[in-house]
């Protein structure tokens, strides 16, 4: 694995994956249209190794083909997506164009240009609000939003391209990812950065619903670890894996931990529940552990303790500017 293309590589997850690949000695090409990604996420990557940034969209077939050919791309980390339930409900067509048509375009162009190894981001949202817990990869899918449906469609595309074209495609179903570089203004699983930002400013902590809903929060370094292993391991082509910590945390418990770790005087305020949200979620990571060698390292409190200083430093820099 010499040169890796990271789509969405200026985003929260993609930029962290790009950094880890550079640290492993890979050359990295980042493709991002900067609709949600930020140059500040990758501005210091040159300190880690050799990378190139290209502004562009995964729907541009000619651009993808030229990148794969000119840069001798050997593998692709596909993180580019519309990653918002609320945006997908407001504009489902745009979500489908980017997440489904964009992924099909990437798979097709990669296959045509000899790049067979792709690891792509799926989501635990494909399970929907089924009561059975923990969520296992063998469970039927029940997406509850256009966003979730688009992720399920990506998994079907992966199966088709793996079987028909001999592609080495692996999907990772992320649960609720958090950590450094996650934008508090983002709609993607942004409860933790929003809580931290508000707590550091001593502003109210908003909770949608009653706060008893649970999530399986997974720290970014565990997600990065899973991506690197999937890119370098020989696993079943077309397979999909849960990437989670494997424990439930209620939103109210999360708020309490953030307040405790930041020493904040913020108050918790409750708002109406959001459309399309699932009630409870926790993932079984047995399959990923067995097949990928995935190993969880950060429980929620340890991950928060790693995450909060990044936001504190960012806030200090912003206030000093």
Notes on the structure:
Helix 8 (251-262) crosses helix 10 (300-320). The mean pLDDT is 93. This protein has ten helices and 13 strands. It has helices at residues 12-23, 61-70, 85-90, 92-112, 146-165, 191-200, 220-232, 251-262, 286-292, 300-320, and strands at residues 3-7, 27-32, 51-55, 75-78, 117-123, 168-174, 176-178, 205-208, 214-215, 217-219, 240-243, 249-250, 268-271. The chain folds into two domains: 3-178 and 219-245, NAD(P)-binding Rossmann-like Domain (Rossmann fold, 3-Layer(aba) Sandwich); 191-214 and 247-277 and 298-320, UDP-galactose 4-epimerase, domain 1 (Alpha-Beta Complex), CATH 3.90.25. By secondary structure, it is an alpha/beta fold. Strands 3-2-1-4-5-6-11 form a seven-stranded parallel sheet, sandwiched between helices. The chain has a two-stranded parallel sheet with strand order 7-10.
Number of helices: 10
Number of strands: 13
Helix content: 40-55%
In the sheet with the most strands, the strands line up as 3-2-1-4-5-6-11
Q: For the CA atoms, what is the radius of gyration? A: 19 Å
CATH class annotation of the largest domain? Alpha Beta
**Main structural class:** alpha/beta
Q: How would you describe the oligomerization state of the chains in this entry?
A: single chain
Amount of beta strand: 15-25%
CATH superfamily of the largest domain: NAD(P)-binding Rossmann-like Domain
| Distance linking N and C termini | 41 Å
């Amino acid at each position: 694995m010499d040169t890796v293309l990271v789509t969405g590589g200026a985003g929260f997850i993609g930029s962290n994956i790009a950094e880890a690949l550079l640290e492993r000695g890979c050359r990295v090409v980042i493709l991002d249209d900067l609709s949600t990604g930020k140059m500040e996420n990758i501005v210091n990557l040159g300190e880690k190794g050799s990378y190139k940034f290209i502004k562009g969209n995964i729907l541009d077939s000619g651009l993808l083909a030229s990148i794969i050919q000119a840069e001798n791309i050997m593998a692709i980390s596909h993180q580019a997506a519309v990653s918002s339930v609320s945006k997908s409900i407001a504009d489902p067509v745009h979500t489908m164009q980017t997440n489904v048509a964009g992924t099909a375009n990437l798979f097709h162009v990669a296959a045509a240009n000899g790049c067979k190894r792709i690891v792509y981001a799926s989501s635990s949202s494909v399970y929907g609000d089924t009561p059975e817990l923990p969520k296992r990869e063998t469970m039927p899918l029940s997406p509850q939003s256009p966003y979730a449906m688009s992720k399920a469609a990506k998994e079907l595309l992966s199966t088709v391209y793996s079987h028909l074209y001999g592609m080495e495609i692996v999907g990772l179903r992320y649960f609720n990812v958090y950590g450094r570089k996650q934008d508090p203004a983002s709609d993607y699983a942004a409860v933790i950065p929003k809580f931290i930002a508000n707590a550091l400013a001593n502003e109210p902590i908003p909770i949608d619903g009653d706060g008893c809903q649970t999530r399986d929060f997974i720290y970014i370094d565990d997600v990065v670890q899973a991506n690197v292993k999937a890119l370098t391991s020989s696993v079943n082509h077309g397979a999909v894996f849960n990437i989670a910590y494997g424990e439930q945390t209620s939103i109210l418990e999360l708020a309490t931990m953030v307040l405790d770790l930041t020493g904040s005087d913020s108050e918790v305020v409750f708002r109406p529940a959001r459309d399309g949200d699932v009630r409870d979620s926790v993932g079984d990571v047995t399959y990923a552990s067995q097949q990928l060698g995935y190993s969880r390292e950060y429980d929620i409190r340890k991950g928060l303790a790693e995450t909060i200083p990044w936001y504190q430093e960012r806030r200090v820099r912003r206030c000093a500017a």
